[in-house]
Amino acid sequence: MSVSVLSFTRPLDGVSGLLQVASLLGFALLLLKAAQLYLHRQWLFKAVQHFPSPPSHWLFGHIQEFQDGQELQKLQKRAEKYPCASPRWLWGNKVILEVYDPDYMKVILGSLPTQPHCGPGYGLLLLNGQKWFQHRRMLTPAFHYDILKPYVWLMADSVHVMLDKWEDLIRQNSYLEIFEHVSLMTLDTIMKCAFSYKGSHQAERISQSYIQAIQDLSNLFFSRVRNAFHQNDIIYKLTPEGRWNHRACQLAHQHTDRVIKLRKAQLQEEGALEKVRSKRHLDFLDILLFARTEDGSSLSDKDLRAEVDTSMFEGHDTTASGISWVLYTLATHPEHQQMCRQEIQILLGDGASITWDHLDQMPYTTMCIKEALRLYPPVPGINRDLNKPITFPDGRSLPKGFQVSLSIYALHHNPNVWPKPEEFDPSWFAPGSARHSHAFLPFSGGARNCIGKQFAMNEMKVEVALTLLRFELVPDPSRVPVPWLRIVLKSKNGIHLHLRKLL
Question: CA geometry: angle at 451 spanning 482 and 486, to 5°?
């Protein structure tokens, strides 16, 4: 009997010992992780010790400060109270330095000590190092002025389609929410100009699905950034938001794949391939399809789709934001709207044929567009990771590996840079006016500035000119837009305008 008992207790003792060892090992690992977190937090505190900020919670940081729909207003107050930059704690061990000073911007953007902070990704917007340089050099010819010139009439064609639709709609209701219409128009334009698409995208259901998917991805991105439990990819994919994000990505990629497949099919038509090859300058997508890497191979499907994804998103959503806010700004400043209209009427008459040469002959309209972009920058902020230590002009510094957020919105509303920043004053951009080289950054700055900034400015000029020739714009006093901090600046309640057809 005693032998039998021993034979059972020895294995049990072994299991108990293993559990004790496992518990001790787990506890040791937990202590090690806690020590790592503590040391990292101390490193972060030391890095930002010379940058004052509002008081923060030890765990939730400044999250509460930025969850009441007043993010942009809070950033403006920071710019007024804390010179140049201030730390923003997201939670526990996560802090970003919010930058809103032109001298600081120049240091960060000018010497390229940084890389985009968007997690792993592809496309010109997210690439780093030599691969970014190769893709930038490869795609720059797509924005040569010889390429951009014939785009003007394509832009005008898309704008006329939208304005005709507006004429029909105002017979039923003179108040319109314009952002969705402008988004469809800018998507139609980028499809025609950069991707050789024939026809109109503004009436297709797939275009509306794509625009909704992009909006969903933007909202989900901001929601994820502010949730400490959603930072792990595996956990996030299991959540309802993670599954929603996956579906939206699939919809966006389906649209991109369709564009690539259609263009490839067009190039396989008899004679089309050689005709395109013989062109001196190629459109954006054709450059990608004909491109060769340093080893002589064509771009991978992954790289090809990533560049098309980036161009499709950047080429329509940011421009739609810019145009919508410009129209709203002119609606709320009728005297400036009328001065722009008079300038355009003298230049274009009825606007039947707007050309490349006209775009440089509307100085006051251009001033108003730039001032609207100052008040409502399409990209309100960009994040960067420091690849090396940097020192700012005032002597304060940051170590390698630190993350900074360049708050373009706060920069444009910084009273130390722009006196009376909330006032609409186009004279800031009068010919010959002087300002800091990095005080106005609607298209970012430095080597990584927006590659399509000339394309975007051209499109805004065409749209504004043709709209003002056809409609008088009046704001809807019952629905004042609420600027909303997203990847692209939106209005939380839409942008509603009253349109009056001009005789």
Answer: 20
Amino acid at residue number 298: S
**Strand, coil or helix: 272:** helix
Chain centroid to CA 281: how far?
Answer: 27
For 79, the token pair is 């710019």
Cβ atoms within 10 Å, residue 403: 15
Question: Which tokens hold the place of 166?
Answer: 């507006």
- Local structure of 490: helix, strand or coil: strand
Listed ranges 245-259, 265-279, 318-332; the one with the highest mean pLDDT: 318-332
Evaluate whether 177 touches 325 at the Cβ level (below 8 Å): no
| Amino acid identity, position 179 | F
Q: Report whether pLDDT(178) > 90.
A: yes
Residue linked to tokens 């399409």: 378
387 phi and psi angles, rounded to 5 deg: -85, -10
pLDDT tens readout for residues 286-324: 888 887 766 667 777 888 888 888 888 888 999 999 999
Cα 146 from chain centroid (whole Å) = 27
Residue 249, annotated as binding a ligand: no
3-state helix vs strand vs coil in the chain, percent to 5? 60, 10, 30
- Single pTM value for the model: 0.89
**Cα-to-chain-centroid distance, residue 148:** 22
* 196, 142 Cβ separation under 8 angstroms: no
Give how far Cα 62 sits from Cα of 48, 88, 95, Å.
Answer: 15, 6, 9
DSSP E strand stretches across 72-128:
85-91, 94-99, 114-116
Q: What would the two tokens of residue 36 be?
A: 């790592």
220 phi, psi to nearest 5 deg: -70, -35
pLDDT tens digit string along 43-90? 999 999 999 999 888 888 888 777 667 889 989 999 999 999 999 998
